[in-house]
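Please review this one:
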Amino acid sequence: MQERLYYASQRELVWHTFKKHKLAFVALIILTVLYTVSICADFFAPYSPLNRFQNFNDAPPTRIHLITREGKLSWLFVCQTVRVRNTETFKYEYRENTAHRHVIRLLVKTEPYKLLKVIPMQHKFFGLADRHVPLLLFGSDRLGRDVFSRILFAGRISLFIGFGGVMVAFILGSILGGISGYYGGLVDEIIQRIIEVLISVPNIPIWIALSAALPRDWGTIKIYFAITLILAVQGWTGLARVVRGRIISLREEEFALAAKAAGASDWRIIFTHLLPAFISYLIVHITLAIPGMILGETALSFLGLGIKPPAVSWGTLLQDAQDITALANYPWLLIPSLFVVLTILMFNFVGDGLRDAADPYASR
């Protein structure tokens, strides 16, 4: 092993060190599962995000049983749930009819659909044989839609909008920061003053102002890309300043001067020689910046300025939890926030692991 590490490349050394960071490695696995389930939400979610169950508005999570009423051990099953009105409180309640059991099956047959809009399929990962009996793992919302299925579909927007915003911010920060640090002078002054103006404006007000300016008749795709650009407006400033400082310290190094003496263009020196010199930091920055983008989209959608229904994101799902009365009576509406917290924590753990692994002074 020591001999292999001696001849290993930088990438192999980083991966070897990262795997020894147990918390970061587990976080990477959890993030992989989250992204896989969200991408293939058509397969893993038992219902579509718009599927409604009549007379199951604001229904609590379905109870899953292992023991029958005769006291025997059984495979996972649920009992048929019926809605009745309480004559004392005049409120609807959901009660189980233990005489009717429905076994939870794997690879249950459903209506035909296309996975990722391409692969024709007719099975879900799990569900009930009777599609008219609801299996509400996280309860339902006020329209009788399965919250669990909607969370999985919402992850497609909430998880991937972070990548979109970070990549735009990464490109802007690398280009403008590299130009500012390499050329200096008037160009550096202009770029730095722009950065100072953007940094001086609080994030939420500028996000709200830009989101409110979007046309109300735009579709989901246009809104998605617009939100990505809005989140990237201020996301590139911090990276640009760091890139500028690194470029200033590296532009007088021997390898940069040698490339310039060999006739390399300024752009080639910046993007081929200088930026790769601290690429490990850039990778860590991307990992730690994604949670901020996810929180930004969640905040905008929660305020009604982001993704619009019928499209779903974790922010739009949390809109139902704004009313304290609804929150007190239907606490399962807050479950999407747990996915937001989990994702943010996992990205931070992965970022910490990458930062330690990319440290050239860390022990290998």
